[in-house]
Amino acid sequence: MFKDHAKIIHAIFSAGEIVGRKKLQKIIFIAKKISFPFQEKFQFHFYGPYSEELTLRIEELCNMGYLDEVKEKKAGYWQYRYSVTESGKEFLGLHEISMPALDDCLMDMNQQSARFLELVSTVLYFDSLPPEEVAEKVFTLKSKQNYTLEEMADAYAYIDSLKQKGLLQQAAGRATV
Amino acid sequence: MAYSAEKLKEEKVFKDPVHRYIHVRDRVIWDLIGTKEFQRLRRIKQLGTTYLTFHGAEHSRLNHSLGVYEIVRRIIDDVFKGRPEWDEGERLLSLCAALLHDLGHGPFSHSFEKVFDLDHEHFTREIVVGNTEVNTVLKRVGEDFPKKVADVIAKTYQNKLVVSLISSQIDADRMDYLQRDAYFTGVSYGHFDMERILRVMRPREDQVVIKQSGMHAVEDYIMSRYQMYWQVYFHPVTRSAEVILTKILHRAKHLYETGYKFQQEPVHFYSMLTGNMSVSEYLKLDEAIMFYYFQIWEEEEDAILRDLCRRFVNRNLFKYVEFHPSNDQMNKLMELNKLFRKAAINPDYYLVVDSSSDLPYDFYRPGEEEERLPIHLLKKDGDIRELSRESEIVDAISGKRRTDHKLYFPEDLLWDDSAKKNIKKQIRRLLELE
Question: What PROSITE patterns does its record include (chain B) (predicted)?
Fold first, then answer.
């Protein structure tokens, strides 16, 4: 029970701190797509893959006192900063979660911009389509982001590098959750 | 005349308790309604296990699908038609997507999807683009038409205005289910002035916006959504039934995986259990099939499966206590877990925490960080503003975070002192039942 909650705390704890709800959504989606065992269901929304379940879970974790949420005013919008509280660390101690390769992937993703992660997550969302159709989806559905072909190539290369890290996880044995 | 433009000689109308009448004039829509995949939705309840709490909630996904179609038809034909931002060439596509948006739902799909890792949206797409009667009808419109319909339903179609009619924070889907669910459950909340909302909707490049003068009608809609969430969708008794149903499926899966010999082979479950389900197999599943198995499993040798099925079929549900998952409470939960095992009541099936995040319903969110597109009001000067920035009522609701967790257990077993009397007494004390 609460294993799915614990996995989210684990992810934020591994990243140290995640700035931005959008970034958090994309990071968990990407981690799930590259085979880490997150259970939240994602759908495609106006701004790309989004999970209402994840949003609610984050709210629950904040209400439980396991996550700290700091609201910061930015130019024209609010931004939210998430980190794990001391109680959250204790809670994590009650659950056996081991996803060693995830830590590396999370640290890496956390250093990327939300814009790039939005592109990566969109590419991954359409990963069952051939590359030319993926490009068409990105350029039509994300037309306002003006992504370039070069950025698309970067996204594919980045996905490959994350998948390599994910393979290390498999080589080291399945994640313990 | 092209099939896509073909009209019925006489308009067909369906009597409907929510919209009074549902009007069909397009041949394509009429043909889609007659397909076996659409008719299957009659055998799937819109609200799953809610009928065990609100006995009127027996309405089907077919009722709701027709309702969503009717709302979209009215928006397009009565409000959008002739406006420069609206492309009339998208009319039929929008109507088809509205009618078919729930086509891939299975019986009790929320529990099913969790246990068997299925996704009804995946099946909706497969039914629309695969070898089905629905696909045959859609293909008569155009070779790529089924794919377009599937893209609209998946929210990945290029025209976001069309997508937003069926899927946004104020869409035809929600407007129908809120009113329909309120009607069939018999609750007094859930009502709002849809006529007014439809009249103030305006098409824009990427979404439907609402004229500022209609803000109060939208406030009412947001309030009804909020009330229905807590009073109907998240009702603790419904959740108890959902918990038991989920545990039945978990148990059946576990038994299959451990080589248990069922008295009657659960053939309809095999492809699910092996993770290899085809569309045609999926389409055979409905609630009648599910209840058939629940009833025969009431006589199974496995005591857990037998007991859970009897509970579900006869509405002998789990009781609950509020649960706040502080670290103290988590330690208490672990203690309860041990005591349940000592009392020979398997906690994997009989001690369950259910959280608000487990539900497939949501509140209004202002989308402060571009997570979801919020509701936008169209001001007189042409500017658009997010709803909660203009409405104090909406701001108050969307700014407050309310979550909920409950701990479910079979109280009757805990009061059965024929065995493990002292341990059960300890459990009852921990649960504060005595």
Answer: HD (PS51831)
Mean pLDDT of chain B: 93
**Alpha-carbon distance A50 to nearest alpha carbon in chain B (angstroms):** 7
Nearest-CA distance B236 → chain A (Å): 17
Structural domain count, chain B: 2
How far does the CA of residue A58 sit from the closest CA of chain B (Å)?
A: 9
Whether the complex's predicted ipTM is more than 0.90 is answered with no
Which of B234, B265, B289 represents a domain boundary (last residue)? B234
Q: Do A45 and B206 touch (CB under 8 A)?
A: no
Q: Is residue B245 part of a domain?
A: yes
Task: Tell me how far CA of residue B134 lies from CA of B131, B140, B207, B335, B391, in angstroms.
Answer: 8, 10, 28, 53, 43
- The H or E element spanning position A20 is none
User: Residue type for B63, please?
Assistant: N
User: Which has the closest alpha carbon to B47: B125, B124, B118, B102?
Assistant: B102
All structural domains of chain A with their residue ranges: 3-171
Given an 8 Å threshold on Cβ–Cβ distance, is A55 in contact with B371? yes
Residue of B nearest to A136 (CA): B158
Residues of chain B with pLDDT below 50 are: none
Which pLDDT score, from 0 to 100, does residue B369 have? 65
Residues 371 to 400 of B: which have CB under 8 A from any A CB? Answer: 371-373
